[in-house]
């Protein structure tokens, strides 16, 4: 089959009915255009921001009202940690490919960089999220006087459990959502560079 | 969006929609998927219209968006998203399932099926080539050099011809 024939066969497929674009305004729900991974990332970020709005006033109150030094330090630590987390998450979204107007190759590379940043963020979550959180809570808990020791230990163990649960969810998210996409993009980029 | 951009968009869409549909068709499983994917493309074209610079080629710009959307979205995912589209604004009249009732359609089906066996980057290149876009424009759309495209096309055409001959 010669090339011209291929082209002519390809272009013969215009028996599809025409798409109508009648009105000037297209009403869409922008959020629904996000794919699953973006929804997960947005959910994570908004949860953190909401949590920050709740945690900061509460721990500011503790820092001023609870007289124990270690608890005060723990409260301030938690406030700083929450602010740090929010900044870190928002910063990580800066590299998000914003539009589809890039060429194919650039779009793939930008998407790859964005996914790598998200992967790195999730992989290192133990160090910037869970560990500082546990340190802050440990200072807070051991500073409190007059509360039975077993309750403090139980509270702290609960926090450790929560930390590991978050860590597990993130690892799972990386494995199920980010790595398959990265592999696919790497494969495409490799093919394109060949 | 101002009136000028809107007119450019509508004119270009009227002119190129069959081409864009054909490109969507190689990334979609069937006619229904093609419809979903094309709707997604339309929405992204419309959303991105404000970033379009009047001096540049709207065709190249549309192809870029189409390919990136096709790459990113799986039609199944689009359906799961339950996107809300006001029917009066954009609607796809029934895209008919291809009926293979004559020799031409058989050839077309065979060509489409063979293109679908290619990897996604090769699909993009061959679809643009079959639309008779010059190498320079394919290069602008894909980000690959013209030489690279020429080499790739040679390989892709050979793969396609092998595939088509096998299916005969």
How does this structure look, described?
The complex is a heterodimer of chains A (194) and B (168). With 194 residues, chain A is mainly alpha-helical. Chain A is 76% helix and 2% strand. Chain A is elongated and about 90 Å long. The model of chain A is unreliable at 17-34 (pLDDT under 50). Chain B is mainly alpha-helical and 168 residues long. Helices cover 71% and strands 2% of the residues of chain B. Chain B is built from eight helices and one strand. Chain B has helices spanning 3-27, 31-48, 58-72, 75-81, 103-116, 120-130, 135-142, 146-167; one strand at residues 90-92. In chain B, helix 6 (120-130) packs across helix 8. Mean pLDDT of chain B is 77; it is low at 78-100. The interface between A and B is large, with 46 and 71 residues.
What order do the helices and strands come in, and which of them pair?
The complex is a heterodimer of chains A (194) and B (168).
Chain A: H1 3-11, E1 19-21, H2 36-65, H3 69-92, H4 104-123, H5 125-143, H6 149-193
Helix pairs in contact in A: 2-3, 3-5, 4-6, 5-6
Chain B: H1 3-27, H2 31-48, H3 58-72, H4 75-81, E1 90-92, H5 103-116, H6 120-130, H7 135-142, H8 146-167
Helix pairs in contact in B: 1-2, 1-3, 1-6, 2-3, 2-4, 3-7, 5-8, 6-8
Key traits:
heterodimer, A: 194 residues, mainly alpha, 6 helices, 76% helix, elongated, B: 168 residues, 8 helices, globular
């Amino acid at each position: 089959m010669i090339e011209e024939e291929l082209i002519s066969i390809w272009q013969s497929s215009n028996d599809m009915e025409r798409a109508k674009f009648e009105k000037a305004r297209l009403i869409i729900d922008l959020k629904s255009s996000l794919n699953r991974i973006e929804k997960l990332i947005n959910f994570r970020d908004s949860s953190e921001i909401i949590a920050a709005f709740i945690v900061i006033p509460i721990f500011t109150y503790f820092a001023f009202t609870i007289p124990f030094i270690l608890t005060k330090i723990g409260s301030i630590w938690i406030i700083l940690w929450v602010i740090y987390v929010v900044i870190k998450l928002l910063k990580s979204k800066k590299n998000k490919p914003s539009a589809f107007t890039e060429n194919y190759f650039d779009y793939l590379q930008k998407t790859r960089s964005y996914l790598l940043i998200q992967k790195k963020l999730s992989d290192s979550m133990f160090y910037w999220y869970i560990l500082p959180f546990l340190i802050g809570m440990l200072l807070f808990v051991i500073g409190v006087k007059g509360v039975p020791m077993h309750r403090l230990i139980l509270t702290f163990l609960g926090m450790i459990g929560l930390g590991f649960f978050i860590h597990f969810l993130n690892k799972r998210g990386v494995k199920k959502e980010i790595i398959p996409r990265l592999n696919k993009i790497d494969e495409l980029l490799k093919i394109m560079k060949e | 969006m101002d009136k000028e951009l809107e007119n450019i968009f509508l004119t270009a869409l009227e002119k190129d929609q069959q081409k864009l549909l054909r490109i969507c068709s190689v990334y979609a499983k069937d006619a229904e998927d093609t419809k979903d994917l094309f709707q997604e493309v339309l929405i992204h074209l419309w959303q991105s219209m404000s970033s379009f610079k009047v001096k540049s080629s709207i065709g190249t710009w549309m192809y870029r968006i189409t390919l990136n959307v096709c790459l990113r979205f799986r039609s199944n995912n689009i359906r799961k998203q339950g996107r809300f589209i006001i029917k009066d604004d954009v609607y796809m009249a029934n895209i008919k399932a291809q009926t293979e009732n004559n020799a031409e359609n058989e050839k077309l089906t065979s060509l489409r099926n063979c293109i679908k066996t290619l990897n996604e980057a090769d699909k993009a290149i061959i679809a643009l080539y079959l639309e008779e876009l010059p190498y320079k424009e394919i290069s602008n759309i894909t980000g690959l050099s013209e030489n690279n495209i020429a080499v790739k096309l040679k390989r892709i055409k050979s793969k396609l011809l092998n595939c088509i001959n096998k299916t005969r």
